[in-house]
From TrEMBL:
<protein>
    <recommendedName>
        <fullName>HTH CENPB-type domain-containing protein</fullName>
    </recommendedName>
</protein>
<dbReference type="Pfam" id="PF03221">
    <property type="entry name" value="HTH_Tnp_Tc5"/>
</dbReference>
<dbReference type="InterPro" id="IPR050863">
    <property type="entry name" value="CenT-Element_Derived"/>
</dbReference>
<dbReference type="InterPro" id="IPR006600">
    <property type="entry name" value="HTH_CenpB_DNA-bd_dom"/>
</dbReference>
<dbReference type="GO" id="GO:0005634">
    <property type="term" value="C:nucleus"/>
</dbReference>
<dbReference type="GO" id="GO:0003677">
    <property type="term" value="F:DNA binding"/>
</dbReference>
<keyword id="KW-0238">DNA-binding</keyword>
<feature type="domain" description="HTH CENPB-type">
    <location>
        <begin position="88"/>
        <end position="161"/>
    </location>
</feature>
């Protein structure tokens, strides 16, 4: 136990302000329909004396509940919210609007529907761009890591490890390669090029496939589309 040096100790909490549940408030209002205010206070708060400061305060609280009766009764009728003391609608404290978040979600899901990996940094950058489109200043919204985590949780997304990656070449990839080679040969003839040089000692990594990507929770397979060259390395 900590000993006070000057003989003064911290005053104990008096807990004078107590927030009641919606079910309790609804019961108080229902009782008030058929009884007087003194009877009501004596029934639910028997320790409060009539004409005291506490009685006046409690009376003011009850009258305020009466003005909010429709909301209190609707909350008390729900088994989920009846025992809650406060209620704030989903999205009430969000900096970005629901439409802005939906734009970010659509962008993420569009990339994943095409097999594109979505790195952890990508939703952050896209959120900043979307916020700018909706005239939200950077000082009010920074797309912090905690916001990104909340955004992913709200939309049942998470940063997951890819389970497979595969090649999905276009059907006309062979024709495209042949046309490109023909174009190069034609330019050599047109420009009168006699010698073709290649850069020496140039590191070439054909493709980088990330191990993590944003994806829906619960899916058994997290696949990422690639060109089939992720394992190839060469020095040209």
């Amino acid at each position: 136990m900590r000993v006070s040096v000057n003989g003064k100790s911290k005053k104990p909490h008096r807990h004078k302000s107590v927030t009641e549940t919606f079910a309790f408030r609804a019961a108080v209002l229902a009782f008030y329909d058929t009884h007087t205010m003194p009877k009501l206070v004596d029934t639910f708060w028997s320790g409060i004396e009539l004409r005291s400061k506490a009685y006046t305060t409690k009376k003011r609280v009850i009258l305020r509940w009466k003005t909010e009766r429709s909301r209190i009764e609707s909350m008390a009728a729900s088994s989920k919210n009846a025992n809650q003391k406060r209620f704030r609608r989903t999205g009430a404290a969000k900096t970005l609007s629901g439409d802005a978040e939906q734009d970010i979600l659509d962008w993420v899901m569009a990339l994943r529907s095409h097999g594109m990996p979505v790195l952890a940094k990508m939703p952050h950058l896209e959120a900043l761009d979307i916020a700018q489109m909706y005239d939200v200043p950077h000082s009010a919204f920074a797309a912090s890591p905690s916001w990104i985590a909340s955004f992913l949780a709200r939309h049942s997304l998470s940063l997951r490890t890819r389970t497979c990656h595969r090649q999905a070449s276009p059907l006309d990839s062979t024709n495209v390669a042949q046309e490109f080679a023909a174009t190069v040969r034609r330019r050599i003839v047109e420009e009168g090029i006699t010698t073709v040089y290649n850069a020496d000692q140039t590191a070439v990594i054909y493709e980088y496939v990330p191990k993590l990507t944003v994806d829906e929770r619960g899916s058994q397979t997290v696949w990422v589309k690639c060109g089939g060259k992720s394992k190839e390395r060469v020095t040209a």
